[in-house]
Design brief:
The chain is built from no helices and six strands. With 88 residues, the protein is mainly β. The protein has a four-stranded antiparallel beta sheet with strand order 1-2-3-6, with no helix packed on it. It has a two-stranded antiparallel ribbon with strand order 4-5.
Length: 88
Amino acid sequence: MHLNGGGILLYNGLFYYIQNDVSFDQYRNLNLQQAAGRVSLIQSFKLPYKMKAELAAVYHSRRLSGANTLSRAVSQVDIAFQKNDATG
């Protein structure tokens, strides 16, 4: 999505469901189920003096990551600046 002032906003989401049926032996069965997802948002800005900025945020929900392992939720935010010094 283009914004006034030349900025761009990008949104991306992925949601999914996992069913993990595991049999360790004939006496030990495990049936794990979980809904999980990932969301990212990127916003870019034009700044004065031929500069640009970008803000990115990502969130991964808690999810199954093995036969009986749950990974914790993780999030991050990144900020970047760029200046164009090229002449011509």
